[in-house]
Structure formats: structure tokens, C-alpha cells
Amino acid sequence: MDNPQDTQKKYQDYIDKKSPNSPILKNCFNAFWVGGLICVIGELISQFCKFKGLDIQTSGTIVSIILIGISAFLTGLNIFNKIGKFAGAGSLIPITGFANSIVSPAMEYKSEGYVMGVGAKMFTVAGPVLVYGISSSIVVGIIYFIFK
Amino acid sequence: MQKIGKQTIQFNCPPSITSTACIVGPKEAQGPLAKYFDKCLEDEFWGEKTWEKAESKIIKETVNMVIAKSGVPSSNIDYCFAGDLLNQCISSSFGLRDLNIPFLGIFGACSTFVEGLILSSIFVEGGAGNTSLCAASSHFCSAEKQFRFPLELGNQRPPTSQWTVTGAGSAIISKTGNGPFITNATVGKIVDMGIKDANNMGAAMAPAALDTLITHLKDTNRKPSYYDAIITGDLGHIGKEVVIELAEKEGFNIRSNYNDCGVLIFDKESQDTHSGGSGCACCGSVFSGYLYDQLKSKKLKKILLIATGALTNATSSQQGESIPGIAHAVSIEI
Amino acid sequence: MQEFFQNINYMHILYAFLVGGAICIIGQILIDKTKLTPARILVIFVTLGAILGGLGIYQYLVDFAGAGATVPLTGFGYNLAKGAKEAVDQYGLVGAFIGGTKAAAGGIAAAIFFGYIASLISKPKMKKQ
């Protein structure tokens, strides 16, 4: 008799072989061009801001706000999840995915009310991004302060 | 009623399934079994404000429908066994709170429907009552919300993932009747093969289904060919393949008469449901709609229904626990 | 407007497309190969961006590809880290706590605000597929 861990390991290997893989080439292709396109829209907005004489920091913020707005709008229209299904990381990795991850739980948990539903659940997916993003920026700041 | 073998109950006066009813959502209505369902909804909310309320309404209306179809006044129904996937089984208890039938809530994840059939049969044959009702429901949107991600999140479903069936199935089990009859029941053990991928429930549950199937065949001393059909609850395409291959290794050939409700309910190619259907309503609605019809019209005379469940929740999978599986079987003959 | 179109730097647009797309491919490989959840992938990207930003490496990518490097979530992390460093220059140690959030304030506030508005006016719908 095999010991249980071996049996489990064998079963896991068997399942891995049995399970179909994601169509990774097709997924990567879609992610590439949709992600690229979103960045191109960002770049166009950014160049327009610079053309209007805005500085880099402000231009960058405006790019973020506009892309986040578009993403929130498309999520509200029940369109973003279809784009996401098609493009995968192509719409997840750009700032649009961050916005979608805030808007989608906010909509979903509206049924639990505006405070503990929308307000609290808004950050179920995006919360960790802010926690780790901001924390690492503080660490970067402190290290920079020490070694400056 | 007596126990035979390791885990099987043999009913000496087999209880009869006198009527069934099922209601399903719009996606199931586009599937190949649409014409067998009693009612297909046009949208997932069914006029309610939340999915949870919609699910409660589905199980409530399904139960009302099965009572109406059976012709038995609800005051003559002695017990109701019902369950679902939401925390603390709120769909069943909220949906059935006005039912006025003694109620026992049950949880067996997606195996709940057969768990209800088994308990109903035991209560009825044991003399605790004459008539018992069982029901189970699930809802794609409420299940996604509780177990996975918000619906509007733009994520991709991996090819091993399964689609929770929106709907409910219900059956009335009576001491007397013209069948189909529940002749045996095999209560399954929890089987955990260490699968942790919540997107591959079929693989997690398949060993439990296999264990119950083989135990049942050994306990009853039957061959797989005894049954016109052996049907599992919601293993999906991957789980189905796994069960066929592992059963073959154990010396049971079930290739010709085995199928799965999760495979039957959707058309994989056109409906993009990946590995197939899942949820309490998968087995519940496919049995109450399609299989019951096949039994009544004698196209199938002996079936073994093995409902499978993944005994997991959102917290346990976040804590890295594996997914224990369960499977209960009933043999139904006419 | 016409004047703007004449002034578009098409090479930068191309670089933005290629670099932005390439970063998304990395994300897609993580999704398909590792079974990481979307939240984990976003966390990995933002943290990686902050580290590379802190080391000054990500700056080269931003100079080369513009929005192709700043729009992906690694750019969000880079922006946080860059903000923290600049604030340290200006305010000393306390800047480490001010700079990051300040630099990303526009994006965070926009996401919260638009998210709230969207939840007010629309309802989630069943995925058709």
C-alpha cells in the first residue's frame, strides 16, 4: 500500500496531465495587443497634455484619471468583463484592471447597503494593491533616506 | 430496510418518487435539456432585488410546483429536506419559511439533492411519515459572489472551471406510488485526494464518486451493466474522464452507460461552460427534469444516481486547504 | 487640434504599444501558468514596479516607452516609489510617508469616486458566456 501522500501526489500529477491547458499563445496574443492599445491611448492623452503645456507629473495623473474613468464606465455598462474575458492580462495589468477591481465589487455588494456593502467591499481586490504598493513605496523612501 | 455490505441501505418496501419539479435559469434553458425543465427563467433576478432573493424564490416556486404536481395537499407532507450552497443554507430556509412543513435543512454541497432523497427514503420507509419532500438549489451569480469574484471583474475562467447551474430541483418521496422506486442508497465517505485548485472541482470530487460507485457495486454485488445508466452529479468533462479511467483500473468498465449531469446540461462548444455544469441544481434539475422523465417513460429502467459535492468554502481555500469530496448514491428502478 | 496631430511622436506611440503589450504578456503567462488570482498578480506587479522604481531601473523604461511603462500597474508602483523619493529629498524622512500616496492620489481618488458613481447607477449582470 502506498502512503497517502504518495497517492495524493500521484493523483495530482495524473490530474495535471488530464486537465486541458489554457490556450496560452492565443491568450498572450490578445493580452499583447489589447494591453498595447490601452497604453497607446494613454500615450496619446499624455502627449496631448504635454502639447497643452502640462508637466509630466500632471500629465501622468490625467492619463490615470481618464483611463480609470473609462474603465469604470465600461464596468458599469457590463462591458469590461467581456473585454477582460477576451484580453486577460491585457486589460487587467494596465490601470484599467485596477479600476475594474474597485468598481466590480462596489457594484456587486450594493445589495448589502452603501456603507458595509459598497463602501467596505470596494477594496476586496484592490485593497491589497494599495497596501503593498504604498508600503513598498514607504520602504523605498526610508532606504533612499538612509543611503542618499 | 436493512444495511448490506459496508455502506449501503437496502429498502425492503422501496419508497416511490411520486413527482418531481425543476426550475432553471436562462443559460440552462439554452442547453440541450431545455425541453425537460418545467420552467425556464428569462433573467437571473426573476423580479427580485438580489440574487440571494432570486435563489430563494426559485426553490420556493419549485417546491410549490412539485406539491401542485403531486396532488398531495401540503398538510399531508410530513418532512421537507432542503439545502443549497449559500452560507447557512439561507436560500432554502428563507425560500421555504412559509411552507408550513416540518423542515430539516441539510448540507452536502452539490450532493445535497441525493442526500435529501436518501434521508426522505429512510424517514418514509422507517415509518416516521408517509410522504417527504426534498429540494436543492443553486444560483450562478450568488455562488460566484460567495466563492469566487464579483461578476463584473474582467477575469478569465480557466478551462478546468465549471459553471454553477442556476435553478432548483425538487422531488416528493412517498410510501406508496407507482414508482420509480428508490431501492438502494449508498452513503458516501469523505474522500480527499489533496486537490487544492478551486477551479478544478471535478478532479477534486471524482475520487469520492469512484469510491461510492465501487462500494455500491460491491455492497449490492452488482456489475455496472446492471444499470441502464450511471449518472454522477457534477463532475464535468474532466471529472467524468477521470472516473471512467480510474474505474477501469479497478476493473469496472462503465464507458458505455456512464454520464454526468454537468456534461449533459450544457453544450460545451456553443455555451462556453468549459468543464461543464456544477452546483446543487445541476444534479437536482437534471434528475427532476430529464432523468425522471426517462424513468417514467421507461426509456431508462434502472439508474444509479451519484451526486457529488466539494466540501469547501471560500475561507478554507484561501487558507490553502485541499478540497474534500463527497458522493452519495441512490439506485432508482421502475 | 490639427496642430496636435502634426506634433504626435509616432515612435513613442509604437514604443508604448510594444512595451505595454510586452508587460501584459508577462501578466498573461503568470495567469495561465501559475493559477495566481488576479489580486495576487496585481500585487506582484505593483510591488515589482515600486522596487524597480526605487532602484531607478524602471525610469529607463518610462523614458523609453512613456505610457507603455506608466499605464501598466508596474507604473503605478514606480510612481509611488518615485513620489516617495522626491518627497524624501524635499521633506526628509517624513517624505517617505507622504510622497508615495501623494503621487498616486489622483488615480486612487478617481478609482474610488468613479467606482462609487458606477455602483450607484448600474447593476451587475450575468455574464452571457
Instruction: Tell me the Rg of chain B in angstroms.
Output: 18 Å
Quick check: average pLDDT of chain A?
Answer: 92
Give the count of helical stretches of chain B: 11
The separation of the N and C termini of chain A measures: 63 Å
Largest sheet of chain A: none
Low-confidence stretches of chain A: none
Q: What is the CATH architecture descriptor of the largest domain in chain B? A: 3-Layer(aba) Sandwich
Secondary structure category of chain B? alpha/beta
Series of secondary-structure elements of chain B, N-terminal to C-terminal: EEEHEHEHEHEHEEEHEHEHHEHEHE
Radius of gyration of chain A: 21 Å
* Major sheet description of chain B: 7 strands, mixed
Low-pLDDT runs of chain B? none
Element-level helix/strand string of chain A: HHHHHHHH
- Chains forming the largest contact: A-C, 82 and 89 residues
Q: For this structure, what is the CATH class of the largest domain in chain B?
A: Alpha Beta
Strand content of chain A: under 5%
| Proportion of residues in helical segments of chain B | 25-40%
What's the shape of chain B?
globular
Task: Find the count of extended strands of chain B (DSSP E, 2+ residues).
Answer: 15
Write the layout of secondary structure elements.
The complex is a heterotrimer of chains A (148), B (334) and C (129).
Chain A: H1 4-18, H2 24-51, H3 56-76, H4 80-87, H5 89-92, H6 95-108, H7 114-121, H8 127-147
Helix pairs in contact in A: 2-3, 3-6, 6-7
Chain B: E1 2-4, E2 8-10, E3 16-24, H1 26-29, E4 39-40, H2 51-70, E5 79-84, H3 90-95, E6 103-105, H4 112-125, E7 131-138, H5 140-147, E8 163-164, E9 167-174, E10 181-186, H6 201-220, E11 229-232, H7 236-249, E12 258-260, H8 261-265, H9 268-271, E13 277-278, H10 280-296, E14 302-310, H11 314-318, E15 325-333
Chain C: H1 2-7, H2 10-34, H3 38-54, H4 58-65, H5 67-70, H6 73-91, H7 95-121
Helix pairs in contact in C: 3-6, 6-7
